[in-house]
Specification:
Number of strands: 0
Strand content: under 5%
Order of helices and strands: HHHHHHHHHH
């Protein structure tokens, strides 16, 4: 049976997710300020990167969950989840720019160009920027629905780049468990879209 929350219930759900999405950041800040971390820089870098991937998965899971459950109201959560993906991605980038290079852009560029895993991660982050900038209703109207949809399909490029970044980062320690898990989840979410798009095309051609 489809669950259709009232406007008030939907608002409470969004508010709860908004607060819960800040808990990982609050935990990182708390553990850092209280001196409980042996290597706070590594912890923050890894943590913000992991949560960028979590929110990437959450964002891409909205459409499949909506289609399978018939809970159409889930679409109202996608923008917020996508913005949190950008938010943690921005924090991940800032830890790299600030703590690794102390805002020395020239040195940062050298690192970006020299190390492949940083290169693909940087490209993925740059591609996220126009998606975040155009996330408002005003930008949807300004671009037009079709152009906005085409622009936001860039997420299908960002997802494999993010996995490749994570894979290469973990390769140094020969620890591929997390990249494989994230890769499988994102692969399934993307393949579901391919299947539905192909089924729609076949049905349209049969008419």
């Amino acid at each position: 049976m489809a669950f259709n929350p009232s406007t008030r219930q939907a608002g409470l759900i969004k508010a709860a997710i908004f607060v819960l999405a800040l808990v990982p950041l609050a935990r990182m800040v708390y553990l850092t300020l209280t001196g409980q971390l042996v290597e706070p820089l590594e912890f923050i870098t890894r943590g913000t990167g992991d949560w960028t991937l979590y929110f990437l998965c959450f964002t891409l899971a909205v459409t499949p969950l909506r289609r399978l459950s018939k809970w159409n109201w889930l679409i109202k959560l996608r923008r917020m989840l996508g913005l949190y993906m950008f938010f943690y991605g921005f924090l991940h980038f800032m830890t790299f720019l600030w703590f690794d290079h102390f805002f020395d852009v020239q040195e940062m560029w050298k690192d970006v160009l020299k190390r492949p895993f940083i290169t693909v991660g940087f490209i993925a982050f740059v591609l996220l920027i126009p998606l975040a900038v155009t996330s408002t209703n005003a930008m949807v109207k300004r671009l037009g629905g079709k152009r906005w949809q085409w622009l936001h399909r860039v997420i299908y490029v960002i997802a494999p780049l993010a996995i490749l970044h994570f894979w290469w980062m973990k390769a140094g320690k020969h620890n591929f468990t997390q990249p494989i898990i994230f890769g499988v989840i994102l692969g399934v979410l993307l393949l579901m879209r391919v299947y539905w798009a192909r089924s729609k095309a076949v049905a349209a051609a049969a008419r």
